[in-house]
Design a protein that fits this description.
This protein has 408 residues and is an alpha/beta fold. The chain has one domain: TIM Barrel, CATH 3.20.20. Its cofactor is Mg(2+). Keywords: Lyase, Magnesium, Metal-binding. InterPro entries: DUF6986 (IPR054255), Pyrv/PenolPyrv_kinase-like_dom (IPR015813), Pyrv_kinase-like_dom_sf (IPR040442).
Length: 408
């Protein structure tokens, strides 16, 4: 060796603060399960037993109309459908958001009562053990005309829901300072109600993507929010309208929306927050032909999002649960054989024709774990296919313990 220790020591001295800052800002994959969807239900429509009612309605729609051709192999579909039926019976809703914003059409003077009744309904399901695994509320934005009303609804909801953890969705964010100003409000709500709160930001405005200074506002918002932030949720229709896209062409697969969602993915990468797709307002309701059209569109959008690494989206109607789970289960079951073979080759250092690096192994393990989490595959078949148990997959995927400041 020709270099002295002083060269190495100086390199460490100069880069140690950079190492620490990067580790703090990019702690890696958030531990625990990510829901495959968020179901938005207007505050005045939330009643006890809501998740079970959505599941029953989805099963009834499937029984009445039958599944149309969605382009899946018959053998794969035969594996998927029994699992979908079981999911709709046992855990149809993975994440519920009481909506006191755009989906809520009640009169202003009725909002207090509607929010409290919705919270009491969720509380009853939590006490009965029938609530979805994740629950929360979307209140109004922090823009001047709705700011106090939004925070008041949060306070009323949390005072009645009596949950240990909840998610707060902040819509129509336009400025990083709104995020910074909202964090002390969340602290106060936690102290007042004894609840751990996670935060979601909705990307529904062009200003949330690109600021007046030309900077990507999304990244600044993510790091301003810190470990509370669980995700950036894209708002399909508000964002489309803000760009001037004609109503007939507003859809989550519009190329203009792809740009925003790709920037969301870049902004959250490595932070523990997640990029989440939006919704479709083409509902599978009415006569069979109309239901089938709605299911084909929804299944195609879910499949497209999954292929692009967006593993969660919005559902607005019980019948959408059918194609949410059909498309999701088909995706993860279809991915398992190849992912298992590559993981096995990676762990065993075998020459299998594909040279995967640690980052790819993390992604492969993550896909298998997502399939396990949502019920698309089970532990026994994963272990049989990969030779790996859940702790080994968690380790490969880089999933660690929950971080301070997060209810995850």
């Amino acid at each position: 060796m020709t270099l002295g220790e002083d060269v190495y020591a100086e390199l460490d001295r100069r880069l140690a603060p950079v190492d620490a800052a990067r580790t703090a800002a990019y702690p890696g994959e958030r531990p625990g399960r990510q829901p495959v969807h968020t179901c938005y239900v207007p505050a005045d429509a939330v009643v006890p037993g809501l998740a079970a009612a959505w599941g029953a309605a989805a099963l009834a729609a499937l029984d009445e109309h039958g599944l149309p051709d969605l382009g899946y192999d018959a053998g794969l579909l035969a594996q998927v459908l029994p699992r979908v039926r079981a999911k709709l019976a046992d855990e149809p809703v993975e994440d519920l958001r009481v909506d006191a914003e755009d989906g809520y059409r009640g009169r202003p003077e009725a909002e207090d009562g509607d929010v409290v009744r919705a919270a009491e309904a969720v509380a009853a399901d939590l006490a009965a053990g029938t609530a979805p695994p994740s629950v929360g509320i979307r209140a109004k934005s922090l823009e001047g005309p709705t700011r106090r009303r939004g925070v008041r609804s949060l306070d009323l909801f949390l005072s009645s829901v009596r949950a240990k953890t909840a998610v707060v969705t902040l819509p129509k964010v336009t400025d990083v300072e709104q995020v910074r100003a909202f964090l002390p409000v969340l602290d106060a709500l936690e102290d007042a109600h004894g609840v751990a709160l996670d935060l979601e930001l909705q990307v529904e405005t062009p200003q949330a993507v690109l600021g007046a200074d030309g900077a990507v506002t999304l990244a600044r918002m993510v790091h301003a929010a810190g470990p509370r932030l669980t995700g950036l949720h894209h708002g399909t229709y508000d964002y489309s309208a803000a760009l001037g896209i004609a109503a007939a062409h507003q859809s989550s697969d519009h190329p203009a929306l792809d740009l925003a969602k790709q920037l969301m993915q870049v902004a959250v990468a490595g932070t523990g927050a997640r990029a989440v797709d939006g919704s479709t307002n083409l509902l599978p309701v009415g006569p069979r032909e109309q239901v089938h059209t709605g299911w084909r569109v929804h299944a195609g959008l879910v499949r497209r999002a999954l292929e692009r690494g967006l593993y969660q989206g919005w559902d607005l109607h019980p019948a959408q649960l059918v194609t949410r789970y059909v498309a999701t289960y088909a995706f993860f079951r279809g991915a398992l054989p190849a992912a298992a073979a590559r993981l096995t080759a990676y762990v065993e250092r075998a020459d299998a024709g594909v040279l995967d690096e640690p980052a790819t192994a993390r992604a492969l393990a993550g896909v298998v774990l997502r399939g396990l989490d949502c019920g698309a595959v089970d532990a026994a078949e994963v272990t049989a296919a990969t030779g790996l148990d859940r702790p080994a997959l968690d380790a490969l995927a880089g999933r660690g313990a929950a971080r301070p400041g997060s209810s995850a």
